[in-house]
Amino acid sequence: MCVFFFVLFEFVPSLPPRKQEAIDRLGFGLLNKVAMLFPYDFWGGAIDTFGHLARNSCQRGEFFLFYSYSSVSGGPLLVALVAGESAITFEKAPPKEAVERALSVLRDIFTPKGIQVPDPLQVVCTRWGEDKFTFGSYSYVAVGSSGDDYDFLAENIGNGRVFFAGEATNRRYPATMHGALLSGLREAANICRIAGRRSVVQTEDKAVEEGLDLDDLFKSPDLSFGQFSVLHDPTPGSPDSTSLVRVRSSERKLGSDSVFLYGLISKKLVLELAVIDGDEKRLSLLSSSLGTKLVGRNGLSSQGEDLISRIKAAKSSGKTMPGIMNGIHHA
């Protein structure tokens, strides 16, 4: 909340009006604490909280409430709260002076009851207002604001590019540490969800681009017969090297794009397929006798991708590979 409230940096473009208006409506306050560890529990283990009314109304926020953490901390720990204007004054005074003042308040409460207040073994004073990472404690629902403002602050902006977490974005648990933690987990999940969705889109776009690349390559195949088109490996070598075969699906609805399947076979098998009469017999030979599996563009193995790269490089350089039975075109 301090990022918004104290305008620590500028958003370009500006925040959406609804988010900025929510920031303007919500309050952001300061609450400090003095945590004191005593040698024993002098206030009584059955007491969770007790209060103190200051004689001077200007100091009504100074040590107005004490929390006992004995039941949860494993030791006689007492925490004093300082709020409002007193919280600001508290940060200007040396810690030693603040502790002495807190002990004075405790002794005013318990000494008349015949209870001695010992000196604490250890003390910690917060300085949330001076902390450059917080500049305060937490948000609150100011006059004119509502719980909806927490929801507005939680909304991401930039079509899922900028996300917001913190206690001021958690309508259910505002002004709490666990509320801030839960908001971080919430946004981590949102980031993963949106990033995953974009990854799928990018993968699909890449597949489309790769499909277009293959379409360009197969515009001038080394060999074609029926629904089959073939691109040979341009690398000089054995006449039995691998070729890339593309088969256009015959089950195509009118007006729809063609569906292509791909496979890797030897040049020798290409010759056998070329002389067979009819695509059904060719497909039968591929699947049953030769055990060749036709797959979609994304299903090609690394061997297939390497072959495509070599074919692209050869065609880009203007090289041609003399194919077996070049120019055969029959069903």
TrEMBL record:
Residues 10-191 form the Amine oxidase domain. Keywords: Transit peptide. Signal peptide: none annotated. Coiled coil: none annotated. Pfam families: Amino_oxidase (PF01593). SUPFAM superfamilies: FAD-linked reductases, C-terminal domain (SSF54373), FAD/NAD(P)-binding domain (SSF51905). One of its GO terms (cellular component) is nucleus. GO terms for molecular function: oxidoreductase activity. It comes from the Eukaryota. InterPro entries: Amino_oxidase, FAD/NAD-bd_sf, Flavin_monoamine_oxidase. PANTHER family: FLAVIN MONOAMINE OXIDASE, LYSINE-SPECIFIC HISTONE DEMETHYLASE 1 HOMOLOG 1. Belongs to the flavin monoamine oxidase family. This is Amine oxidase domain-containing protein. It comes from Platanthera zijinensis. The lineage of its organism: Eukaryota, Viridiplantae, Streptophyta, Embryophyta, Tracheophyta.
